Amino acid sequence: MSDASGTSGARAGAEVPRRTGVPTGLAVAAVLVPVVLMLLRTLAETVLDESSGLGAALVFAGEPLVAMLAGFVFALGVTMVGSARTGGSGRSGHSARSGEETRASLTDSLKSIAAILLIIGGGGAFKQVLQDSGIGDAIASAAEGAHINVILLGWLIALLLSLTTGSATVGIVSATGIVAPLIGDGGGLEASLLVVAIGAGSLGLNYVNHAGFWLVKESFGMDLTQATKTQTAVQTLVSVLGLAMALLLSVFA
Prior knowledge:
Layout: H1 2-13, H2 24-47, H3 53-61, H4 64-80, E1 83-86, E2 92-95, H5 99-132, H6 135-144, H7 150-165, H8 168-179, H9 188-203, H10 211-219, H11 224-250
Antiparallel strand pairs: 1-2
């Protein structure tokens, strides 16, 4: 009787082996792998000759899809690397994750981002519908005859195009093409402030047709009202302040 109770007490007092998380260094490295590959691609295109085999390899590896895939494979390998187990004796050993544990980890990660990916995909499809409808061309045509300050014009066009198409990139590129001829060959401070104004305009009124709006909303578990009061309001405030600073500095241009 005493032996049994002693054995059970020893078992109860023993520390249960516990798997620790992935080392911080490896986790950071997994995030940096795509970034490094894309930076190497940029360097290869800038420095190396087009006929270089190394340059071709780096350009291929730096393609966004390839770089992201490499980062995923690296992260997957990290999750399968042995992680420390600490026993009652205080010693730590290493044991590899089983295939079932790795599969469970991947499944759990997908559960948290699946809805976000679907919503972002839907937002991207809506953006393409708006672009194909020609609304950007209509705004561009209307803006060509406007007689207002070029900085304000650039900001307004970028804002409207970003709002209607759901893409800040479309707003920036289209607005730049429209207003760039208006500053002629002068360049200088006015051109720089115009760039700032266009960039600021593309940030404003970030709403439901922007993929970034849904990314922020779903990532922080906000409802539509909360996301509007935070993401949309903050982005619009940044946009307006950017325009105000550009107009203020244009006084000295």
